[in-house]
Amino acid sequence: MQPVYLEVCCGSAADAIAAYQGGANRVELNSDLFHGGLTPTLGALRTVKRHAPELKVMCMVRPREGGFCYTDTEYETMLEDARIFVENGADGIVFGFLREDGTVDTARCREMLAVIGDRESVFHRAIDVVPDVPAALDTLIDLGVTRVLTSGQRPTVPEGAQTIRAMIAHAGGRIQILPGGGITPENAAW
C-alpha cells in the first residue's frame, strides 16, 4: 500500500505553519477560505517558507470568488501573482481557467503553465463545474498539469466519491487526482 500524502488547505501563514507542525506534507496556501480560497499575500508565502522551509507550499492564484472565467485584467493579474510566487519559493501554483461554456480554457492554462515552469501545477475545483469531466481530464493531461483538486462535482468528497473513483480510473496514472473538500478527521480514514 502506498503511503498517504497529507495536504492541508490553509487560509493563512499561521494555518500553514500549524499544519506543518502537525505533520502535513504539503499545504495549499490561500486567503479568504470563506469565499472558496483566494490568492494569498506574498508575505504569507515568505513567512511560511521561513518557518517551515521543508514544507511544500502550493499557492492559490484566484483573484475573486464566483466562477472561473476571468476578465483580461484579472487574468493578467493572476499570471503576475504566479510569477511572483514562483520567484519567491512557491513549490507550485493552484489555478483554474474555464471558458464561458464551462470547458477548460487551454490557451490560458498553457500560458499559466509556462509561468509555473518546472514547479507543480494544480487545476483546482473548477473541474467540479465542467460539463464533461473525462474530456476536461484529457485536456489537462495533454497540457501536462501535475494534478487535479476535486470533490467529485459535489459539495464534499464523501458525496462525490463515486465520481472521484471514475476520475482516478479514467486518469490511469497520467495525472494525480487529489480529493479535497469535506475531508475531516472523522472521515479521513474512509
Distance, first to last CA: 15 Å
Q: Spans with pLDDT under 50 lasting ≥5 residues? A: none
Mean pLDDT: 96
Query: How many distinct helices?
Result: 6
CATH names the topology as TIM Barrel
Give the C-level CATH assignment: Alpha Beta
Query: How would a textbook summarize the main sheet?
Result: 7 strands, parallel
Q: What is the CATH H-level superfamily?
A: Copper homeostasis (CutC) domain
Percent helix: 25-40%
Question: Per the principal axes of the C-alpha atoms, what is the gross shape?
Answer: globular
In what order do the strands lie side by side in the largest sheet?
A: 1-2-3-4-5-6-7
Class of secondary structure makeup: alpha/beta
Give the total of beta strands: 7
Elements, N to C (H/E): EHEHEHEHEHEHE
Characteristic terms for this protein:
TIM Barrel; seven-stranded parallel β-sheet; 6 helices; alpha/beta; 190 residues
Any overview of this molecule?
With 190 residues, the protein is an alpha/beta fold. The chain has a single domain, classed as Copper homeostasis (CutC) domain (TIM Barrel, Alpha-Beta Barrel), CATH 3.20.20.380. Helices cover 38% and strands 15% of the residues. The chain has six helices and seven strands, in the order βαβαβαβαβαβαβ. The protein has helices at 13-21, 42-51, 72-87, 106-116, 133-143, 157-171; strands at 7-10, 26-29, 56-60, 92-95, 120-123, 147-150, 176-179. It has a seven-stranded parallel beta sheet. Strand 3 (56-60), helix 3 (72-87) and strand 4 (92-95) form a beta-alpha-beta unit. Helix 1 (13-21) runs parallel beside helix 2 (42-51) and helix 3 (72-87) runs parallel beside helix 4. The radius of gyration is 16 Å and the shape is globular. The mean pLDDT is 96.
